[in-house]
Design a protein that fits this description.
The protein is mostly beta strands. Helix content is 4%, strand content 50%. It has a 28-stranded parallel beta sheet that branches.
């Protein structure tokens, strides 16, 4: 057992037993200084209500970890600034006053209650602590949301789907701030279902929709323990951020809420997503690096991403790249995760026009369980997102076209020690471009068991599409394919199909 994060009032721990993803094989008791706190089942858990400058011992599964909490300079209760927590009165002024008065290394405490808020802007060095039973409830009137302009004097503030664009500030927003923490057992409820955010949701109305938490060009961020739900678009969006830690969270949107991704690291360096449960209306985790125009300007990949002990239980895709990945995605490690009921497991969405400003590769998946995932693996370089560009021959043709700056480039992918059950359409669909094949795909110790009652469906979104059922691994325009100890149970037809594959090895 190790400590992932430590603040003056909280700590997050991770079991290192490697027994199973997200959940431990059995319940266990967590003790604090010899006193039982609660029973647990998760591999990642947090304790709260610690005091600064105190020594503690946490015990679980016959392991003990000793630690001392850091000091803090001030502890401010929002009720001291006039907040009442009745869910009726606008509390934004009281919260803003508390955050503004908090100095470096201070904690702003939000006790149990319902706090109606307009967007709150966070500040460097301040921890926002949401007590158990505390709910931050978003205002439903978009007129009360400030607009973050696309750019002013060359400085980029707002963004939407990989481009600089005017967007409404999010319920919790930070720009160019460092050492921010949002901790606790409370809830950030953006109240989107009670508002009009989803009316004509693909049309900009004043500005593009806010996220739940938006972090723009921030460094050293910790979000720990909280629930983020009912968001107008993505739950958590770190944008051009460094060193972001997202631990022990629950992210929730109902399936019918469109474009409500869970976490979207975007042009970031060093993001850890550990112990997070995600059930949303779009992709659970979507890693992005901008459109080709943004990539040309900033040349910033999204890199050094760790996803571990997470539970993706509802969504279009579990871990997804793109479709805005023109800046590149590098060094992504996903391990000990559980995917259950997502449409796709691992998925790359790109197409001609996204470009090769940055490469996409260095991806490893290990020790993963997927249950009732229709298509566990998809790499699609013909992605049609339903816009007019996706219907052009330039995007969908399988003829070999000239390589230029608009041609995407994909590198190496390793999938190891995985069990996939309840597969429906196919085990995996890999659609490379003839002029830019996928470089390398390796499967090792992976099993696929098919749903006996599987229905036919499209492996992914392409203009020229064919519905399939219980198919194996389908590789198209891939340079190197290695399959070692891969087993299939209940598939129909060939286990492996090869088209435009240069080198194939099966052991």
């Amino acid at each position: 057992m190790k400590i992932l994060a430590l603040t003056a009032h909280s700590a997050t721990f991770e079991l290192e037993n490697n027994a199973s993803p997200y959940f431990n094989t059995e319940k266990f008791i967590v003790k604090l200084n010899g006193v039982k706190l609660r029973e647990e089942r998760r591999n990642v858990f947090s304790v709260f209500y610690l005091e600064p400058d105190k020594s503690y011992v946490v015990e679980a599964l016959n392991e003990a970890v000793s630690f001392s909490t850091p000091s803090e300079s001030a502890f401010l209760n929002v009720k001291s600034f006039g907040a009442c927590g009745d869910g009726v009165h606008d509390e934004t002024g009281a919260f803003t006053a508390a955050v503004s008065c908090a100095g470096e290394n201070s904690t702003v405490f939000v006790p149990s209650g319902i706090y109606l808020l307009r967007p709150l802007f966070l500040k460097s060095g301040v921890t926002l602590w949401l007590d158990k039973g505390a709910i931050l409830l978003g205002d439903t009137d978009r007129r009360n949301y400030p607009v973050l302009p696309a750019s002013i004097d060359g400085k980029n503030f707002g963004t939407w789907q990989g481009e600089e664009a005017d967007c409404f500030a999010s319920l919790l927003t930070a720009y160019n701030q460092n050492n921010i923490s949002i901790i606790g057992e409370g809830v950030i409820d953006c109240n989107a279902l009670a508002a009009d955010w989803y009316e004509n949701h693909r049309i900009m109305r004043g500005a593009w929709r806010p996220r739940g938490i938006f972090l723009n060009r921030c460094k050293n961020v910790l979000i720990q323990g909280v629930t983020v739900k009912n968001t107008p678009s993505w739950n958590i969006h770190p944008y051009f951020c460094n060193k972001v830690k997202l631990y022990d969270l629950f992210l929730q949107n109902i399936p019918s809420m469109p474009t409500t991704d869970g976490i979207d690291p975007d042009c970031c360096d060093g993001v850890e997503i550990i112990g997070v449960k995600i059930s949303v209306g779009d992709d659970c985790i979507a890693i992005k690096s901008g459109t080709i125009e943004s990539a040309k300007k900033y040349k910033t990949p999204c890199k050094n991403i760790v996803i571990r002990n997470c539970f993706m239980c509802e969504g279009h895709g579990g871990v997804v790249f793109g479709s805005e990945l023109s800046g590149g995605i590098e060094n992504v490690n996903v391990s000990r995760c559980l995917f259950e009921g997502t449409d796709r497991g691992f998925r790359i969405k790109t197409r001609r026009g996204r470009g090769r400003i940055g490469k996409c590769g260095g991806v490893t998946f290990t020790d993963i369980i997927m249950r009732n995932v229709k298509v566990p693996f998809v790499i699609n370089m013909y992605y049609n997102m339903g816009d007019e560009n996706g219907h052009t021959e330039y995007v969908w043709t399988t003829e070999k076209l000239p390589v230029d700056e608009r041609t995407p480039e994909l590198g190496d992918f390793i999938f190891k020690n995985m069990e996939c059950t309840g597969v429906e359409y196919c085990a995996g669909a890999f659609y490379g471009l003839p002029e830019s094949p996928i470089k390398s795909v390796k499967f090792e110790n992976v099993s696929f068991t098919y749903n006996k009652n599987a229905e036919a469906g499209f492996p992914d979104m392409r203009e020229k599409n064919i519905a399939v059922r219980k198919q194996g691994l389908d590789f198209n325009f891939t340079e190197d394919v290695v399959i070692k100890n891969v087993k299939m149970f209940g598939q129909e037809g060939d286990e492996v199909k090869l088209n435009g594959v240069e080198n194939f090895m099966r052991e």
